[in-house]
Amino acid sequence: MDRDASETRNEVQAGLDAGEMVTVFGRCRVDYDGRASSELGPGDRLLVLKPDGTALVHTDEGHQPVNWQPPGCDHESRLTDGELHIHSTRTTPEETLDMYFASVAAVNRYAVTDDSELSVSGTEADLRERVLESPSLVESGFEPRATERGTAAGAVDIYGVDGDGNAVVVELKRRRVGPDAVGQLDRYVTALRRESHDGTTVRGILVAPSVTEQASELLAEQGLEFVALEPPE
Amino acid sequence: MDRDASETRNEVQAGLDAGEMVTVFGRCRVDYDGRASSELGPGDRLLVLKPDGTALVHTDEGHQPVNWQPPGCDHESRLTDGELHIHSTRTTPEETLDMYFASVAAVNRYAVTDDSELSVSGTEADLRERVLESPSLVESGFEPRATERGTAAGAVDIYGVDGDGNAVVVELKRRRVGPDAVGQLDRYVTALRRESHDGTTVRGILVAPSVTEQASELLAEQGLEFVALEPPE
DNA sequence: GATTCTATCTCGCTG
DNA sequence: CAGCGAGGTAGAATC
């Protein structure tokens, strides 16, 4: 099932040169060096080289590739010590990925045409639309005034006022939230209180499907509020 | 280049039954429904089905699969309206992925053996080891007393005391940090101050390679400190 | 390019 | 199983 390494290399390089998607399955070692560094001993893996400069190394397990390079990298095929050697580099940050194939079971080249765009629903953006269309879902009398309003601590998802004229900061999450989301909301509320030189009251409301116990306690400690709401669909 | 759909389906199913990694390249539509939902119109994509129940749908661009299922899913091959139809399901949460192939250019089956483990260096754990071996890198006189010390707000990376007997909370990050890390440290410090009924001073120190401007301001506002330190390697 | 935040995040660990 | 935090997170939007 093994193939002549030189012929294999030519096939891989021809695919890369043609702007095709190239896959290589075989026994290999993998070295990575960059933001971190890693070593992976011999094993059977599927290498996917994309025409946009992406490289993915997949084992038989897991959603995540065991090693990879992001889009925009340069891939080179080489013969190093008689083995097929794929060398991929990027800059900013400087990172290299090297794969050494002791044997190659298959090389495949695919000419890819894909004009469709993925459409997703049930995102945080959908939840924001839902709140903007029906602000009373947050609270009777709530009036949104701005989205992505800037503060010293970052941009607030929805900024508005309540029925008593108090300022309201709404932080949206599409799923059940933990302590991190409370910290985020607290930063925005604190920043706005600091920025409002008059005595305006600033309320913080976390809008999400649900909240963990620890996050709930943090909300109470900080005097922040929670409203249960799911993204549409 | 197209293949008989029934024959193709048999090949895919045989690979799944044999516990092999199966790839299908061809023109397809993809529907996903679960935590969110998505639709993807016709285009050429590479489908990877792993023996652990993972499914990955890759276009010609990007590190991330355009659609996927995590490990542990059940994959079925079907003939629906004369097309190869891959149906993948999971529970908790209930999620389904459906791929309909208008044409298939290639099916590949790979028997995978991989006994090697990935070893990574330059992680947060490596940074923690570095600090525990040389606590003076944080500050002269700093003495670590515990790692992963529990608080009401979660576990502190390193807990210790300074030369004056004050409590010190160290939050480690392997890379440049933004506002979220400051919020995290602040939650731990606040929780410990609440828990220490005597008048013990609790200091919070963020240890990371560098810090963004906004995070730096947040640190100053909260009376927290920063020490520049990189993970080893 | 740097910063900030979302994500069907995934993954590992711990209770 | 849920919760919590790390990640070479990637990706998008904005400055």
TrEMBL record, chains A, B:
<keyword id="KW-0255">Endonuclease</keyword>
<keyword id="KW-0540">Nuclease</keyword>
<keyword id="KW-0963">Cytoplasm</keyword>
<protein>
    <recommendedName>
        <fullName>Endonuclease NucS</fullName>
        <ecNumber>3.1.-.-</ecNumber>
    </recommendedName>
</protein>
<dbReference type="InterPro" id="IPR048301">
    <property type="entry name" value="NucS_C"/>
</dbReference>
<feature type="domain" description="Endonuclease NucS C-terminal">
    <location>
        <begin position="124"/>
        <end position="232"/>
    </location>
</feature>
<dbReference type="GO" id="GO:0003677">
    <property type="term" value="F:DNA binding"/>
</dbReference>
<keyword id="KW-0378">Hydrolase</keyword>
<dbReference type="InterPro" id="IPR011856">
    <property type="entry name" value="tRNA_endonuc-like_dom_sf"/>
</dbReference>
<comment type="similarity">
    <text>Belongs to the NucS endonuclease family.</text>
</comment>
<dbReference type="InterPro" id="IPR049173">
    <property type="entry name" value="NucS_N_sf"/>
</dbReference>
<dbReference type="InterPro" id="IPR002793">
    <property type="entry name" value="Endonuclease_NucS"/>
</dbReference>
<feature type="domain" description="Endonuclease NucS N-terminal PH-like">
    <location>
        <begin position="21"/>
        <end position="116"/>
    </location>
</feature>
<keyword id="KW-0238">DNA-binding</keyword>
<comment type="function">
    <text>Cleaves both 3' and 5' ssDNA extremities of branched DNA structures.</text>
</comment>
<dbReference type="Pfam" id="PF21003">
    <property type="entry name" value="NucS_N"/>
</dbReference>
<dbReference type="GO" id="GO:0000014">
    <property type="term" value="F:single-stranded DNA endodeoxyribonuclease activity"/>
</dbReference>
<dbReference type="Pfam" id="PF01939">
    <property type="entry name" value="NucS_C"/>
</dbReference>
<dbReference type="GO" id="GO:0005737">
    <property type="term" value="C:cytoplasm"/>
</dbReference>
<dbReference type="InterPro" id="IPR048302">
    <property type="entry name" value="NucS_N"/>
</dbReference>
